[in-house]
């Protein structure tokens, strides 16, 4: 109690005005409006934290599913083939950030079964080396990844692609190469039968419906290549892929091109970044509306407390001290609202995997049908880099809202205010 009494009088008066008044209905109404402003700031801050956490969670989920199939960095030759890929792999591994390397063959073809035809990206891999650069071997839902053996012309299909072709394990599918074959009758497509030995599900529709894997030797024969198309790399920190790619471009010998995973998915990640920015702006406006409700609250307080202001002025309080009183009142409301909002937002973001299923059970609905979104749980990725800026913006907006009312209070003239008292 002693420490409170030792506070400057501006703090004592400002904090007293923040508390609910009991002397009149007007004071109680002003305090109620102040409480509503505080609740508005809290809900705005909490909503922004939760929405950004969910968007971060979706982005992380999609990115991880992409990188279960894609490599962090791809290295390929300008000629379209990389004959001495082992030497390039040894050079790449000299960079401490590189954890694994594996050769690949990429090409496009038509895949046919019965009367169903689909376009597909074919990727030839070494089954024993591929786990060093991707997680596709761990995404097998039926069959065995190890059944990709050279010369047997086996194939691994994505789950959506297999479902579209009505293909199961052991079934034969026909692949048509884009390069035709010259015959006396003209150019005819080159066809080759492959046996389905496994089905993978990465959880990303683009890959599950459009990619198939085969042994690299079979892929070279099918596309009539003499060497792999290039080399795939995995690094320690996927977010450093652009920087590592630039380093490797200076150290690797030969006329090589490097492509990192953000480049391969530039359109998607640019769209996600733009969407996140726009959502931040929109939800920040909600906080701004709640924060500027403080203006009306403080203006009403200034009008109601004109006699008190006049008495303080006659006792020697300066206009700056009067301004401080109402800045402290508004800042207290803003800080409390922000603190409550941060606590609520963090709590919901950390427990959204429990809260959402409970709401779904009560309402009898499913927000994320798995057949549509390929995930059945709402992801959340809470980041301190989002929470602190949100809290800072809310506090700054609350402080800005106190400027006009506090300036108006400082201009109150004691004689005019006490005339009718």
Q: What topology does this entry show?
A:
Blueprint: H1 2-5, H2 9-18, H3 25-67, E1 73-77, H4 85-93, E2 98-113, E3 116-125, E4 140-143, E5 154-158, H5 159-165, E6 172-183, E7 186-200, H6 205-208, E8 211-215, H7 216-223, E9 230-235, H8 241-251, E10 256-260, H9 261-264, H10 266-304, H11 306-314, H12 319-350, H13 352-363, H14 370-373, H15 384-401, H16 403-410, H17 414-418
Parallel strand pairs: 3-8, 5-7
Antiparallel strand pairs: 1-9, 1-10, 2-3, 2-6, 2-9, 4-7, 5-8, 6-7
Helix pairs in contact: 2-12, 3-10, 3-12, 3-15, 10-12, 10-15, 10-16, 12-15, 12-16
Account of the protein in words:
- This protein is of the alpha+beta class.
- Helices cover 54% and strands 20% of the residues.
- It is built from 17 helices and 10 strands.
- The protein has helices at 2-5, 9-18, 25-67, 85-93, 159-165, 205-208, 216-223, 241-251, 261-264, 266-304, 306-314, 319-350, 352-363, 370-373, 384-401, 403-410, 414-418; strands at 73-77, 98-113, 116-125, 140-143, 154-158, 172-183, 186-200, 211-215, 230-235, 256-260.
- It has a 6-stranded mixed barrel with strand order 2-3-8-5-7-6.
- The radius of gyration is 33 Å and the shape is elongated.
